[in-house]
Amino acid sequence: MTSCGGSGSGEPNEYVKVDDNEAIVESTYPEKAASDIIYEVNIRQHTPEGTIKAFMNDLERLDKMGVDMLWLMPIQPIGFKNRKGSLGSYYSIQDYSKVNPEFGTLEDFKALVEKAHELGMKVILDWVPNHTAWDHPWITEHKDYYAQNDKGEVIYEADWTDIALLDHTNPATRRAMIDEMKFWVEETDIDGFRCDHPLHEMPLYFWEEATDELDQLKDLFWLAEVDEPRAHTEFDATYSWGFKGISTEIGEGHKKASEIAKYIDEDIKRYGMKPFRLTMTTNHDVNSWEGTVFERYGEGDKTFAALAFTVYGAPMLYSGQEVGLDKRLKFFDKDTIDWSDPKGYEEFYTKLIEIHTDNVALHAGEFGGMPIQINKDENVYAFKREKDGNQVIGIFNLSDSEQNMNLTDASVAGTYKDEMTGKEVNITVDQPLKLDAWEYLIFVSNK
């Protein structure tokens, strides 16, 4: 494998992890995006047709739900060489500047972006910068773009046999990749990128070059699939993988609510409140490889979804989640989502979106309020968030048994609206509460 520092490149070795706290910066994205709800779109499985045109018919429904930003999984052609399954992985890119015929045409995608913009939604494209398919033209035309072993053979990682690893210590590789990204901004008017593993075998200085150049074209939104504060020197939002991980362990009965309270406090100390942190209970990887929300959270699935939408960060949904997706979608083959929604999940998620959007205290980054724990309990996590006179109280029983607790924080005494029922409630100092298994309460007041 080519050395990480880039033999003879003269570039700094950014693969060596730096002190996390050295790189904390504020998101440069506008305040109006702090309330955005991100919706990850799996074009292949979203409709029976599995096409961009077919998905466009769902835009108005998503707009009515309150979705602000569409993140489309990769739409480029998928390689045939070493392909996995019948259709291949979305992340094995054969040509960066074309649309997978399975999904439609470039004109179809342009029409999608145009319609989304008419509805007031943004569109960001999933970008795969660190590897290509084995039959990408660069393999034969620009072998020097790729990481190679001592024998000069292009390499892959782990069991990712369908992809070839790129070498971004080569300035020519970086130039070619930025040009490919530039194409989508200039030709289709997208609003940003969700970047796949952007610090995995990739130098941070590549992203400095990319964001500096591409942001001159348009004020783009940059989402990084990484949980490292240093990414925020170039990215607006990063994944809160820890939230997903610890919430799953609680749902499976391996940890208690006190652990997520501890994690959130530590995460804010690590990142500060300025960066946007993406909170989720599922996405394409989690659903396909780790299990559905029902497998991981059991009867607490709605509880953890409500927590993700209120506790901090920028919440997201994945195709089918809003109708109670109860199967692991196949990753390499066709596996259409069932949209029947027998348990009324869409109404539930629409309500969560409304709560997050309408309450400034719940907005992402420094534009929302810091979550402050208002109890010390092993099984119940209760917090308050306040911003510009808007106060939200969240009380979550993160256990499968009834819990009794008292609210002893005098600062939360007052009259509130119960957001899930619409009823008025009064909270007094040392007020006792009895919570059923997995019950949660969201109270709001405006001063």
Automatic annotation (TrEMBL):
Residues 372-447 form the Alpha-amylase C-terminal domain. One of its GO terms (biological process) is carbohydrate metabolic process. Keywords: Metal-binding. It comes from the Bacteria. Residues 49-356 form the Glycosyl hydrolase family 13 catalytic domain. The keyword Cell wall biogenesis/degradation does not apply. SMART domains: Aamy, Aamy_C. Signal peptide: none annotated. Its cofactor is Ca(2+). InterPro entries: A-amylase/branching_C, A-amylase_C, GH, GH13_cat_dom, Glyco_hydro_b. It holds the Pfam family Alpha-amylase_C. The keyword Metal-binding applies. CDD domains: AmyAc_arch_bac_AmyA. One of its GO terms (molecular function) is metal ion binding. Belongs to the glycosyl hydrolase 13 family. This is Alpha-amylase. It comes from Marinigracilibium pacificum.
